[in-house]
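Case study: Type II secretion system protein H.
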Amino acid sequence: MKHHHHIQQGFTLFELLVVLGIAAILVSLALPAYLQLIQQERHTQAVNQLQAMYKFARSEAIKRNKQVNIVAGAGGNWQVELPDQQDRSIRSFQLKDAAIAVTGLDLVNVSQAGFATPASVSISHSQHTDAAKWLCIFPSGQLTIQSQACTHLG
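Here is what the predicted structure looks like once written out:
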């Protein structure tokens, strides 16, 4: 008489629950760091976009040989405008993250020679205020980014 031995393959319910428990612990440890990384990237993106907007306004003022303004609008919206043409907007910028606050960028005039209204623009994240960045716009038109408030603007 032959005996057939059935070899069971697969995982037991206990083994599966142990693996799922370990995976859940690893995810719960990694998730806060990942969310913080996402917030930092959005903050950096906002800083870079505002810097690019200022550089665009300055290059347009020099290229067109006309004054160009950066004007703050409602809800985190900024416009690069030509004031001598009924404030015609030539570019706009909208913050994509409501947790990012920009202060100090209400109106910046850029002359046809590239000179600018001095401004200290703070860009901060509501949950990470210690990571704020400042765009420092000098009368010469130079722009710097720093991690502390702007001083000696002119």
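For the exam, be able to explain this: The mean pLDDT is 87.
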